[in-house]
Design brief:
Blueprint lengths: L2 H6 L3 H14 L7 H8 L3 H14 L2 E3 L6 E3 L1 H10 L3 H18 L2 E8 L2 E8 L14 E3 L4 H7 L4 H10 L13 H14 L2 E4 L6 E9 L5 E10 L8 H18 L5
Antiparallel strand pairs: 1-2, 3-4, 3-8, 4-5, 6-7, 7-8
Helix pairs in contact: 2-4, 3-4, 6-10
């Protein structure tokens, strides 16, 4: 494109916004607006306007105490979607189908976004009555197996931020409905290596899931099985959890995890 055309179609605000996102990607602990402006040699007024716009759009979040800005999980989701989830979904689907064939109930894949899980893909169960949702479906993280599986292995700062964003609602007697009980449940998840939803939102529907780790050991996503209580029976959950945990560990190793 000729230089005149490049100048005609330039978008300085967009370029600065992208520069902020790239800069913060290298500083996961977060940076304040003054630090960003100094590092990028950008007017503080521009940084102020752009960081607030990116926060409103869901790409950044601001710590209420330190006022630093950090990336949200939305960037991760966009990256996965832009790649048609080839790295993640392509690595997951063969194992998800194997788990489906073994357990006969629907196997799902999802990622954490704030206090919610967003479903990316599923391998439908073989029973006539089977659980099914569309890609993009949102699930409350605090009372779901994938939400617990991912949250249990998040860095503490991110985990506490997710808890602060959560509205703990009691759906039935099985629901874990307080931050304190949720933290205790996450300790159990780490000991077991898998998480369980004991019909905590929908009575009679049980889920067992485990986290997928990337090469750095970060809980990138979760795979879980969902089925009615007469198939995903409480007494069978330890055995199901072991099957899911071992299958998901194979996915993590495909993604470079060495644990």
């Amino acid at each position: 494109m000729p230089k005149r055309e490049e100048g005609r179609y330039s978008a300085p605000s967009l370029a600065r916004g992208l520069a902020i996102l790239e800069y913060l990607a290298h500083h996961p602990q977060g940076k304040g607006q003054l630090e960003i402006a100094h590092a990028l040699k950008c007017p503080i007024s521009s940084v102020f306007r752009l960081t607030l716009a990116l926060e409103k759009a869901g790409y950044l979040e601001r710590d209420a105490e330190t006022k630093v800005f950090r990336h949200t999980q939305k960037m991760l989701m966009l990256g996965q979607q832009a790649l048609s989830e080839t790295d993640l979904i392509g690595s997951c689907m063969p194992v998800m189908r194997e788990l489906r064939d073994t357990l006969e109930d629907t196997i799902l894949l999802g990622v954490l976004n704030g206090p919610e899980i967003i479903v990316l893909e599923q391998a439908l169960g073989s029973h006539l009555f089977r659980f099914s949702v569309n890609a993009g479906h949102r699930i409350r993280a605090f009372c779901s197996a994938p939400g617990k599986a991912i949250s249990a292995y998040l860095p503490e700062i991110q985990r506490e931020r997710m808890i602060a964003q959560t509205e703990f609602v009691r759906f039935n007697a099985n629901t874990i409905a307080t931050p304190e009980a949720f933290r205790k449940e996450l300790q159990r998840v780490v000991r077991q290596g898998y998480a369980v939803d004991n019909g905590e939102e929908y009575a009679g529907i049980y889920c067992v899931g485990a986290p997928i780790f990337d090469r750095a050991g970060y809980p990138l996503a979760s795979v879980w099985v969902t089925g009615p209580g007469n198939r995903v029976k409480p007494e069978r959950i330890p055995a199901i959890g072991q099957i899911v945990k071992e299958g998901v560990a194979r996915i993590s190793r495909r993604l470079g995890w060495k644990g």
